[in-house]
Amino acid sequence: MRLPGRLGPLRSTPLAARPPGRVRAGPAAGRRASARGRLGGTMAEEAKRLAACAAVDKHVQNNQVLGIGSGSTIVHAVHRLAERVKEENLTIVCIPTSFQARQLILQNGLTLSDLDRHPELDVAIDGADEVDSDLNLIKGGGGCLTQEKIVAGYAKCFIVIADYRKKSESLGERWKKGIPIEVIPMAYVPVTRALTKNFGGAAELRMAVSKAGPVVTDNGNFILDWKFDKVHEWSEVNTAIKMIPGVVETGLFIDMAEVVYFGMEDGSVSVREKQPR
Ligand code: 5RP
After folding, report:
1. If you take atom 8 of ligand 1, which residue's CA is the nearest one?
2. How many domains in the chain?
3. Which of 42, 49, 51, 113 might form a disulfide with 76, Cβ 3.0–4.6 angstroms?
4. 108-148 pLDDT, tens per residue?
5. What GO biological process terms are annotated to this protein in UniProt (predicted)?
6. What confidence tens digit (pLDDT) does each residue in 12-23 have?
7. Which residue, by CA, sits nearest to atom 1 of ligand 1?
8. Does any domain span residue 177?
9. Using only C-alpha atoms, what is the Rg of the chain?
10. Is residue 71 part of a domain?
11. 1: in domain
12. Which of 46, 148, 182, 249 is catalytic?
């Protein structure tokens, strides 16, 4: 099990020895990149696709149990996965992190399972809203943070895919919408007060767009977006927020990611790996 925070040695699927840095995307990815460019795909979308293909090509092997994240970047990973499953006749089982992920798995003809049947995963792949230089993440822009953290937490190796806009040195540099925090609905007011009293900043109830009222998560809860006003010691703050009664989970993924693939503006893929301690 991969515990969030700096709690324990958790081994992962080994990566081939390779220094972190930029890698060239494979030839097929390159061909698709230029074709997509000609068709007018946006640069960020292409960057997401390059990161997703690099991660799937590097980390997915036959007979694995895979965690499938949520958001727009993971869509590219699932497409590449489906392509590989078909071409290489792979046997892969997929565990979703949301309703969206479940639909993606089914629509792409992949094998859907759950944590009851597969309580340990080989690899989990997911997007992120921001990644700092220590591979700490803000996640939950799409509201799926709780299931995402559960699935990543039970994977031997957690891989993140993102475009260049998510790459930062310090959390909050890029992502300005705050840290998502899933809360039990009846507690959203006292949790909001406790957050701002204890840690400063401001917290807002996330409102739905095409529905009156708040966003309701796949777990039937609300989301607070906590806009912090200074850089914190994120591991400590994460633990402290989780102790507030009514908090279900935070979008801070501390010391969980093993490797992050960033699709860059120039068509390369930049790789950030966890540094050995
Ligand atoms: C959803 C998430 C997503 O992984 C995160 O918001 C990134 O999304 P995208 O790939 O669309 O940028 O945490 O809860």
Report:
1. 71
2. 1
3. 49
4. 999 999 999 999 999 999 999 999 999 999 999 999 999 99
5. D-ribose metabolic process; pentose-phosphate shunt, non-oxidative branch
6. 333 333 444 665
7. 142
8. yes
9. 18
10. yes
11. no
12. 148
